[in-house]
Amino acid sequence: MRSMQRSMRPLIAVLLCLTTGLVHTGSAQKSRSNDHLILKGIGLLPHGVASEEETSIDTDGAPHIEKVFIHRFSHILENRTERSKFEKALQFILDAEEHLSSTFNAAPRTAQLLRDHVSGSAAALRAIQLARKLSSQITSSEGAGFQAKAATETLQQVAIQLKDLSHASCHPITRRIILATLVRLQLLLHQSPLSDEAKVLKDSPDTPRLLFHICRLLFNLHRQGGAAKGAIEFLHISKSGGTSMCSVADRNGCTAESVTNYGNCMVRRFDDRPRWVSAEVHNQSAPLDGWRWFYRYSVPRGNRSCEYRDEYMQRMRFTLYSNEFAVHGGLEGRNSDGDDGRTNGGDGRASGASWHSTHLCPQFLNVVMLRQPLERLLSHIKWIIKVYRAEYGRRSEAFFRARDAEYWRAFAPAAVDNYYIRLLLGEGVFYLPSGTVNTTHLEAAKLVLLQYDVVLLLEAGDIDELWLRMALGWRVGLSSAHARVASSSRTTNELIPFDVDDLMAANTEDVQLYDFGAVVHQLDGFMYAVMLAAGIQPYSPYNYLEASDPGVGKRVRCGYVTRKQQLLANVGVNISELHRAYDSEFPRILSMDERVRAPPPTPTPPVQQQQQ
């Protein structure tokens, strides 16, 4: 008997191994099946999935193209003046490819200006070429040469090219050129009377399905690009909701150096603090009492390169930082004191304008929020008055009582004179004399705005439920935070310059830039709204997150930028190829006003959050 038992042991062991293997195999298959269902629920399928599943998603989403378009563009369809302005902005976007390289010919080689291997890949350029060709067919003789079959084939080719784009970028310029074409096509299909060819395209059930398919591919590229980048750079335009954004970012689980009202999500070593007031003009009313954060106008930031920033953000495990100064670069003609010694490197060509090296950092998900410029200007003046009252009490009135617009142009030069354009074109333009910003600067600033991955409008009624949700993957909205409100007391109103209308009249270029930004916002909003209407989740388990939950930030974890696993790895992307590594730490650069005192200690990195 014992001999038989001994002889049976190997067989039992084999059976146990087989049984365990089957259990593990079944478990793995169940896990893969669950992952597949999750990906289908967020409209993102792995490479090699049967086309029937994609067709099913796009068929279900197709009806929302028409509904969302009518909801968001009816005012343009009904108003010829608005239609003309809108078409002009669309044409600028469609022509952007021709102007980017020449306008920013001294920008770093890594800047995503459609000339690098990421944003300017063969697939991206081909997709742009196809979109522009279709757009020109739509507008030629009001669509007289338009062919339904050729349009469908072009759209199909655009979709094929989009599937070959790099996951290292959100491709904002390519996306907006394609969306401009899709919206222009929709405008054609809603005009009256319709040509026979346009009617054929409109009546085809394949048209809305194909349009939804392209929108979904663009949305996927945006989410996956955000995940690959891993952190957000937020351009905080003073008095445009930036402090509230920092507060909300904290509630959405973003990690930043400081989320206090003073720290405002900025990183001290980047020296992105605002430059509002001229210390020289301040000194005419009261002596300077050390370095104050609000009178740093003309203090140079110098070159903190994108690599300098990216290495530090990775080392500290931060997922968001705020820049309340100018866009990077634009140092031509200014002393770039504080060079980190490892610059990005331009193409070596001579630059005739101070904005030719202006660039965004492709390592980050770049976000900007705009506010109606004249409202922002008035709020900024009131806020500066409030800051001075808090610092100097009754003595603060000496700075503002009976002062006119000319005084404010010297006191806060950039803040009251086309502030948006000055910020978007770098330090050189930021410090131009008052009254010198012109239409040439405006056109260049539009091109910079097009490079932002996310363009928010503070006034947008759907900023929480659409924009923060679909553009960033955040759950807690701005409605939960109003961090700073400029005073409107009688005393403050009395200290506003009596000829403030003169200041407002001089901000025409900023108003035009804002109007252009509203069109960019509208194009992206069409894509996001279609995805939301179709029930596409930003990621799983977004629909189970509650904004009112005190611990919601631990589950949101700053949205897309922490979801490499779900948005990239789970669909077959090799995320190791997207990792950005540095051989060593960059040495700290001290700003001019930090050199007179000991720098603050380096903060301790937060505990690393687990990637989903």
TrEMBL record:
Keyword set includes Signal: yes
Entry protein name: Hexosyltransferase
Region (Disordered): 332-351
InterPro entries, alphabetized: P-loop_NTPase
Residues annotated as signal peptide: 1-28
Signal listed as a keyword: yes
Domain of life of the source: Eukaryota
Keywords: Signal
Taxonomic lineage from the root: Eukaryota, Viridiplantae, Chlorophyta, core chlorophytes, Chlorophyceae
